[in-house]
Design goal:
This protein has a domain of 110 residues. By secondary structure, the chain is of the alpha+beta class. The chain starts with 10 loop residues before the first strand and ends in a 25-residue tail after the last helix. Helix 7 packs across helix 8. Strand 3 and strand 4 form a beta hairpin. The protein is globular. The protein has a five-stranded antiparallel β-sheet. Strands 2-5 form a two-stranded antiparallel sheet.
Length: 247
Amino acid sequence: MAPPPDLADSVACVWTSVSRGGVILPDGCVDLVWRGDRLIVAGPATGAIESPVPLGTTVFGVRFRLGVAGAALGVPAVEFADMSVDAEAVLGRGAADRVAEGGMPALLALVRARLRPVDPLDRAAALAMARPETRVAELGTTLGVSERQLRRRFLDAVGYGPKTLARVLRFQHFLELAAAGRVGGAADLARLALDAGYSDQAHLTREARRLSGRTPAELVASGAGPAGERVRSVQAVGAPGAYRPAG
């Protein structure tokens, strides 16, 4: 579901689902999630995470665009990396009660009250890492900041460094390509590896294991789909419909 117009610069989408378990894969995004009993900040992950939400629980959330979560929440995104944090530590006491009573409109009101102007440099830097040819040193030069400054901006805005984000987005690109076409064997995986920006199939396999704990063939067989800013459906390895939208 598209966000309201006044939130569109910072919010990729709002979503609702029912938890059906599964493993949530890294997508580079930060979400505010009502998980039935708690309001949490689901931080940017660098590995697969087992869904902690009981099966059958109705959940909903707001997903921030790449590179804006730190500004939107007023806290460096690195503080949420590989964690789910009680959102009241960020939004203040009573935030969970308001969402429990008011649902999605209340959650959007909380987000709206926190929003700050999006830094176009942070946003441009984050999006640039989706291009396989992007090099961190060259990106800093293009944007007029040092490599050290660029990394600090990434930690604040995204939650981890530019090279980590590049790995996550390349992995998501592989999942997107795999979902869009038929993968019938090793030859197809080798072709998809190159198309996604990997040097070869072995490179893809190493990165897939690092980010998901599974091989590319296992991911394809499980039905894992792409996730992140552009995807508004819910996907999860082994059980489509986990609480965190996979995209």
